[in-house]
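REQUEST FORM: STRUCTURE PREDICTION
Request ID: SP-0412
Submitted by: Lab K.M.
Chain count: 1
Length (residues): 242
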Amino acid sequence: MSKYCIMRFQKYKLGSVANIERHQQHRERLKHRKHPERESENITWRQSPTKTMTQVIRGVMREQEKQTGKKVRKDAVALVEFVLTFSPEMEEGLDFDQWHRANLKWLEEQFGEGKIIRFDTNHDEATKHGHYFVLPTDERGYLNASRYFGKKKQIIALQDSYADAMEVFGLERGRSKEETGANHQSLVEWHMQEEERLLADIVRIEREKAVVEQVKNRVFADDRAVPTKSRVIGDELFDVLE
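STATUS: Completed
RESULT:
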């Protein structure tokens, strides 16, 4: 039985952040979820309840520019998304709340407190998992993704560290894609696929609504077209079809 912990991450420039956030906000419209009955178990948390991730990041960039007197590069990594999960076989019996708390603790240990600006836990899909969005800022508060992801050995160290944190749940580190030869789908590709599914569902729903409106309008039009006359029977007034 597989009992792997799974950690995947994707770096984003500022211009891509709004699309990611939009996908998370409109997930409930997706119809392909395996366990829609578990939607009420999903959790969404934002560091700032009144701001989008884009607005939070822009604030960080403005402060950095104020401190340095230099513009932040347009191609700078502004956000890192971590998707954390485990082998499906391990879902039964795993304390998901404790697992989620362990994820938050691990991310804070790696990147510092206050760096997680949003997370979404998804219970309604095939395997429970979490999306965690992290600001890649350094000790100065400047965007600096290379501080954490600049070298391959840093990424390997992250994977090893996450596996160590997950041992308490009976999970272990998976084999690298170099060992397995697997061609993993990137998170960017995954989000694009999910966005296409979402748009397809929205188009389908709008078409269904349009058909219903057409039928209603046709029925009302037919009702108005039927001539009637009033007839008094006793003290009651009736509309009688011709």
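NOTES: The radius of gyration is 26 Å.
Reviewed by: T.R.
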